[in-house]
Amino acid sequence: MFAKKLIPLIFTGAIAIGTSYAADIVVKERPPKVIVESRGRAPGKGYVWVPGYHRWDGGRYVWVPGAYAAPPRPHARWVPGHWARRPSGWYSIDGHWR
What pLDDT shows up at residue 11? Predict the structure, then answer.
């Protein structure tokens, strides 16, 4: 009985792990330097600046401008995304709230 419940759980976990690796974007071309943006004024109290980043669109890097965002919870901190080097090329690490 225990095995019947455990097998679907293991299978579901394996699929979740496999899809997380399949979503990695690996690019052979080094990303451009980050663009320094002027922030302007925050739209309200508590808003946090989320800096812009270069996104790969399948054929080239495209700049996504920064913007102010409201944190999802008190004391949340934005961790900017970046490109990291691997032996196979450059891969994107998404920004996220911590």
Answer: 42
